[in-house]
Structure formats: C-alpha cells, structure tokens
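haha ok so turns out i had the wrong file open the whole time. this is the CORRECT one, sorry everyone. sequence first:
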Amino acid sequence: MRHLSHILLAFLTGCNGCKLDDPQPAPKTELEKLPPATQEGKNTFGCLVNGMAWYTVSSTRASASYQQGILDLSASIVTPLNQSIGIAL
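then structure:
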C-alpha cells in the first residue's frame, strides 16, 4: 500500500503543471505561410495564387537568372499534380 501511495503522489506531482485550457495557436493566414522576403539570395520562393499560399520547401526547387536583359524566375513544388510556376521579364 505504501508503494501505491508513492506512485500516486508522483503522478499527482507530475500533473500539477498541466493545464487543460491552454489555448491553441491561431492557424496561419495564407500570407503568413509564405517564406520571409529576403535580399540575401536564400533561394526561397513563394507567392499567392488565387489567394492560396504557393511556396517551395527546398531551395533546389527555386531558381532565378538574369541573362541578356531577361529576368527568369522559376519554382516547382511536388504535389500529386507536380505543379510549377515560371515568370520571365
């Protein structure tokens, strides 16, 4: 019986810091899902397409080049549809 009371005491002490009413973090907005804007060449890419966040999770899936006066941006994401986007100016 004494052993059982020690286990019960340890359990109750461990649960002392538990809170059942911890608020859940608010879900991110579509804009907050995009990678932060940089000017350091971090090879990230993201944009809103029809109001939905579209971004790559790997720097190897985004590229940019400037040749002969043409800026070419491209990115792809692996989904069941294998989507890609390209912009040339």
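The chain has one domain: 2-88.
again sry for the mixup
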